[in-house]
Every structure is written in C-alpha cells, then in structure tokens.
Amino acid sequence: MLMAAGLLxxxxxxxxxxxxxxxxxxxxxxxxxxxxxxGPMYGALCGLLIPAMNTLLTGMPPAFPMLxxxxxxxxxxxxxxxxxxxxxxxxxxKFGVLPTLILAMAAGRVSYWLMFEALAAALGELKALPVLAxxxxxxxxxxxxxxxxxxxxxxxxxxRPAEDALRSAVNLIxxxxxxxxxxxxxxxxxxxxxxxxxxxxRLYEEGALEGASVVDKIVxxxxxxxxxxxxxxxxxxxxxxxxxxxxxxxxRVPAAWDTLVETVANRSGDGVCPMERAVRxxxxxAEGLAALKKKLEELxxxxxx
Length: 305
Description:
Elements lengths: L1 H15 L4 H4 L3 H11 L1 H19 L7 H22 L9 H27 L7 H7 L1 H19 L3 H14 L5 E5 L2 E6 L5 H8 L7 E7 L1 H10 L3 E8 H9 L4 E7 L12 H6 L5 H16 L5
Parallel strand pairs: 3-4, 4-5
Antiparallel strand pairs: 1-2, 1-3
Helix pairs in contact: 1-3, 1-4, 3-4, 3-5, 3-8, 4-5, 5-6, 6-8, 10-11, 11-12, 11-14
C-alpha cells in the first residue's frame, strides 16, 4: 500500500495541484511511514524502489543525477526511521515519534549531500539542487511531514498495543532496567532484574507464565523448558540460542529474537552455561526443571560443576 502511495502521491500532486515534487516532497511521506510501520528493512527497500519505479513509469525524477541522489536520501529516511523507532528507546516513549522523525529527516539529508558531492567530484557540475537549496525548496513538504506523519503513527499505535508492549519490554532489557519481562493482555505486568534462570523459575512457581508472553535477556534451552512447563504463549529473547529456538518451535510456541547464537556461554565467557549443560540431553520440561533446580543447589553450595 505504501509503495502504491509512493507512485500515486507524486502523480496527484503534480497533475492535481500543479506543484513540483521538490516543493511538497510526496515520495518522502510513504517512505518514512514504511520505516515507522514496517521496520528498517522495508523502509530502506521502499526508499530504493519508490524513486526507481517513478523514474521508470513517469520519468520523474530524472534517471541522472536525481535518481541516485533521491534513492540514497529516501533509503536513509526509511532505514533511519525504522531503526530509531524499533531499535531504540525513542519508539517506546509517548512523544518519541517527532524526535525520531526529525533525526531520520536529518540523516536522509546527510545522505543526499554525500551522494551529491560524490557525483559532483566524479563528474563535475550536476543539474541538481545542492542539499541546502533542496531543503529550502522543500520547506512546505517538510512542514507537512512534521504535521502529518506523527499523527498517523500515533493513531495507528492504538490498533497495535501488543507491539508497543513488546517494544517497551525489549527496551527495558536493553537499557539494563530489567532482565525478564512478562506481558499479559498487551500490558507489562511483571519485570525482574535477577540474573540467570532464577527469575523464570520464580515466575513459573508463582503461576505467572500461563498464557503470558515473556521477554528475556538471554533465552537458552533451560529457559525455554521452564517457559513450556509454565504454559507461556510466546517468547522473545534479546539473545536466544539455536537449541532454545528449536525447542520452542517443537512445542509450537512462537519465538523471536534480536540475536541468535549457537549456545549460551557461562558468565566468564569461557564455556557453556552450566544450566544449558544440565538440560542438554533432556526433552521433558518437568525433568528439565528438576535438573535445573539440582544444578542451582550445587552452584549455591559451592560444589564443582
């Protein structure tokens, strides 16, 4: 839909309003929205494809030099908007859309300048506006973006509460505020700052995992077994091991992650986590929990592991 808007808006503005795209910047709006709504990868992809498709279908922007300049600028808009909104605390803040938008717009202008200067250095004078002149010409479009895009994103947030809760939980862990977060009915209902497998076991014993979505700093097979035993409905690991991903998948529990690793390391980083070793050859989650509790008793008693 946003790709289609990227083709229709420039056509409508040029033929319906008789205004050049350099003034109202109609391609910028769907590209920035794609970053906010769909994430950095799709934002960057829209930024690359929308100007290219407009060039092929309408001849605007011209294939050279504006197409490479606009492609660099718009791809950066989509990428930066997606990264800042989805991967930093800005996206979870109540009024984080506007500063995210301003930073993304600034990053796009930097890409415009870099591509312009690179082409000018290689080929000489270009039939294109320098970055400051382009920004001045497009000031009405910039104002429209600042007014329109935050309103659209905030309105759509009301229909996507689960994603907002997940993003907030992940940000709490990235900031170091929590190590384990429980989400129920699209709200964060529990946070823990404990280390290792302890927080998840306590949540299981309290009955807090049943039907909940759990976000954890590190999810190995040991954590996955406790989540399955407790009836968690989904799991997100900022770091997740392949064995945990496979175990959750085998038990039909949706899993996602920021980083997927081969195995969870111990705290000194020179070997496999003892909790992972304790459940490596087990499949039954109840047996896994028993093995984990036994290993925890050994560790707390100072027994060799």
